[in-house]
Design a protein that fits this description.
This protein has 187 residues and is an all-alpha fold. The protein is 73% helix and 0% strand. Keywords: Cell inner membrane, Cell membrane, Membrane, Transmembrane, Transmembrane helix, Transport.
C-alpha cells in the first residue's frame, strides 16, 4: 500500500516537475522574443524561472531518494560481507537522517525569517523559495527513515542493500542491458 502511494507520489511529482520546466522554457523564451522583437520584456519571467528551477531541483532530489537514483560509490561496500554492508548502510542512513533533520530545521527557520520579505519583482513572500527546502527535507526525512527501518528490520534483501549508481553512464548501460535481457527472455 505504501509503495503504491509512493510510486503515485513520484509520478505526480515528475509531472509537476515537467510542468515547471515547461513554464521555465515558455517564460525565458517568451522573454527573449519580447526583448528582441518588441524591445520589451516580461518582467517577472526571470524571477519566476529561478523559483521554478529551485522547486524543480528540490522535488527531483526527493524523487531521487525514493528511486535510489543518487550517485554514489561502493568501493568499500562491495568488499564487505552482507552483515557489514547492512551495518555500514545503517550508519550511512542514520547520518543522512541527521543531516536532513538539520536541513529541515534550518529551512524552516529561513522560511519563517523570510515570511515578510517581498521578492523584488512579484512582491510575493520569499518564504516560497525556502518552502522548497522545507518540503524536500520533510519528504526526504520520511523516505530516509522508511529506508532505515526497512534496512534494520531486514525487509531489504542483502542484494538490495546499498544499491547505488557509480555514474549516470553506467546506470544507462545497466538499464539498456536489463531491457535487452527482458526482451530476449520473452522470445
Amino acid at each position: 500500500m505504501i509503495d503504491r502511494l509512493l510510486r503515485a507520489w513520484c509520478r505526480l511529482t515528475e509531472n509537476l516537475m515537467a510542468l515547471l520546466m515547461l513554464a521555465m522554457v515558455v517564460l525565458v523564451f517568451g522573454n527573449v522574443v519580447m526583448r528582441y522583437a518588441f524591445d520589451g520584456g516580461i518582467t517577472i519571467s526571470e524571477e519566476l524561472s529561478r523559483w521554478f528551477f529551485v522547486w524543480m531541483t528540490f522535488l527531483g532530489a526527493a524523487v531521487g531518494i525514493y528511486e535510489r537514483a543518487h550517485l554514489g560509490t561502493d568501493m568499500l561496500l562491495s568488499r564487505l560481507k552482507p552483515g557489514g554492508r547492512r551495518a555500514l548502510v545503517t550508519l550511512s542512513l542514520l547520518m543522512m537522517v541527521g543531516v536532513t533533520a538539520v536541513m529541515l530545521k534550518g529551512a524552516w527557520a529561513q522560511m519563517q525569517i523570510n515570511l515578510d520579505v517581498e521578492a523584488p519583482v512579484t512582491g510575493a513572500s520569499m518564504a516560497w523559495v525556502y518552502g522548497a527546502g522545507v518540503l524536500f527535507a520533510a519528504i526526504a526525512l520520511l523516505l530516509l527513515v522508511r529506508e532505515l527501518l526497512l534496512t534494520v528490520t531486514g525487509r531489504i534483501s542483502d542484494a538490495e542493500i546499498g544499491q547505488m549508481r557509480e555514474s549516470e553512464d553506467l546506470a544507462q548501460v545497466d538499464e539498456l542491458h536489463l531491457d535487452r535481457s527482458e526482451t530476449f527472455r520473452k522470445h
